[in-house]
Specification:
Strand content: 5-15%
Helix content: 40-55%
Bound molecules: ligand ME8
Largest sheet: 7 strands, parallel
Shape: elongated
Oligomer: single chain
Radius of gyration: 26 Å
Number of helices: 17
Length: 480
């Protein structure tokens, strides 16, 4: 299958409702999936839920629900948000599905048969919030830096995965970009972790402690560790493996860039081709947390700004290669600046002139339109940069290019003053309007990945103008 593109998001813990962090990653993947679809590829876009583990069982208990009942509700809330955000996924996998459980059992058998799983005792720290083993070094003032809670001290029989055996191969593949980790800084982070020494990890937990999970086929007292359970989800569209791209947050890079390749090598599977690990954001300077009360529900944003503007506002905050801070109060400012007064206003200005100065005799003659598309330096330059950014997963930068070009078009209007040309019946008017029109058409095309609904509305509107069927109503893309 040469022309395929398989892209994934993390499968989020079914421990609480989605917030804008989850929405951000999923939108990121959605934009890239749409881009590859637009290139004519057969795209498989996998999303889903991580539904096992101690954390989820605890939450369910707090709410007096069975774990299954609990995860059914949470997963539904994710499906609802993805649908509201217009996420065009191909499949929504749930780790409690029978098929997934079978795939995981089969997978771990391959690791076992390769001689890579051995029995041992784990004695140390475990953070249930992260569902991961921690070392003293990773704590800050005795607590997990991500969850601000003291980890559990545990001592239990576990089965371990012989990661050490695979580290040289993993390192080689990362170094030579056979497994391409981007941004470069995250690749280096991973190489440093490998160089500073990383131990084998548990692939099972004692059933006494963790009941909610998939049984380990070789020892009844053990449950498969939730991270192995979760990672194997990516193998579910069999015909598409290896994944072309895993989109993840920086918090789970080690699992994806070291543990996952190790498990795959051991089980005899090819490795994913690319991992893009974006930065995490805080809201108003603080970690997103229910206790702090600073979570933002994507559905509230949609109510306020609409679907496409929400997609835009989340993706255009800062370069994904960095961590960043989101200020809720600035959403409105950005909405007005970039969308209502930016793109929306430019489209309105250009379309209104086209309608008012009806060039009915030459409704956007095909010829002049073509010339502008193929030869205009500014458009070509923007398009090349835009494409290059998207190919390198730099969504913020791609959007910035489009906005910059829109500003230039605005400047072109001020410079050429089409209203004067119209008044003077100047022949140059047609050329100017044609250029503006094709500039706007290009912007619509570039924004399609980000604003699919608005782009469609604007495209239809432009099409009517092009065919001389001038609309009576205003476009009104982004109301103020
Ligand atoms: O880690 N900023 O699930 P999870 C940006 N189940 N992105 C954020 C974010 C923030 N503040 N907070 C969360 C798990 N995310 C595992 C994954 S995959 C085989 C198993 C996004 O619910 C980001 O993508 O904790 C991060 O990596 C992910 O949510 C963590 O989701």
């Amino acid at each position: 299958m040469k022309n395929k593109f398989y892209i994934t998001t993390p499968i989020y813990y079914a421990s609480g409702k989605p917030h804008i962090g989850h929405a951000f990653t999923t939108l990121y993947a959605d934009v890239l999936a749409r881009y590859h679809k637009s290139l004519g590829k057969e795209v498989f876009f996998l999303v889903g839920m991580d539904e096992h583990g101690a954390k989820i069982a605890e939450k369910a208990k707090q709410e007096n629900k069975s774990p299954q009942e609990f995860v059914d509700e949470i997963s539904k809330s994710y499906i609802d948000v993805w649908s509201a955000l217009n996420i065009g996924y191909s499949d929504f996998i749930r780790t409690t599905s029978q098929k997934h459980k079978e795939t995981v059992s089969e997978f771990i058998k391959k690791n076992y048969e390769s001689g890579d799983i051995y029995e041992g005792v784990y004695e140390g720290l475990y953070c249930v919030g992260c569902e991961k083993f921690l070392t003293e070094k990773e704590l800050i003032n005795g607590v997990c830096p991500d969850h601000l809670t003291a980890p559990q001290k545990i001592k239990e029989k576990n089965y371990f995965f012989n990661l050490k055996k695979h580290l040289p191969e993993i390192k080689k593949r990362i170094r030579n970009d056979e497994l391409r980790i981007r941004p470069e800084s995250r690749k280096n982070e991973i190489l440093n972790i490998i160089d500073s020494g990383i131990s084998d990890f548990s692939v099972t937990r004692e059933k006494e402690k963790v009941r909610w999970g998939i049984p380990f086929p070789y020892d009844e007292s053990q449950i498969i560790y939730v991270w192995l359970d979760a990672l194997v989800n990516y193998l579910s569209p069999k015909d598409f493996w290896p994944a072309d791209l895993h989109i993840i947050g920086a918090d789970i890079n080690k699992f994806h860039s070291i543990f996952w390749p190790g498990l795959l090598l051991s089980a005899g599977f090819p490795l994913p081709k690319n991992i893009f690990s974006h930065g995490l954001f805080t809201i108003n300077g603080q970690k997103i947390s229910k206790t702090v009360g600073n979570t933002i529900d994507p559905l509230d944003m949609i109510k306020k700004f609409g679907v496409d503007a929400t997609r835009y506002l989340l993706l255009s905050q800062f370069p994904a290669s960095e961590h960043g801070d989101i200020k809720e109060s600035e959403f409105e400012v950005k909405y007005n600046a970039d969308l209502a007064n930016g793109i929306g206003n430019l489209f309105e200005r250009v379309f209104t002139m086209l309608i008012n100065y009806r060039i009915v005799e030459h409704p956007m003659s095909h010829k002049s339109h073509k010339i502008c598309e193929s030869s205009d330096v500014e458009i070509k330059k923007t398009e090349n940069k835009y494409k290059n950014y998207i190919e390198n997963y730099q969504i913020f930068e791609a959007l910035r290019e489009v906005l910059l070009f829109a500003k230039k078009l605005d400047g072109y209007i001020t410079e050429t003053q089409p209203w004067i040309l119209a008044k003077n019946k100047d022949k140059k008017l047609e050329e100017v309007l044609n250029y503006l029109f094709c500039g706007v058409e290009k912007i619509i095309e570039w924004l399609e990945l980000f604003l699919p609904e608005k782009a469609k509305i604007a495209k239809d509107y432009a099409q009517r103008i092009k065919s001389g069927d001038y609309p009576e109503e205003k476009l009104g893309l982004f109301p103020r």
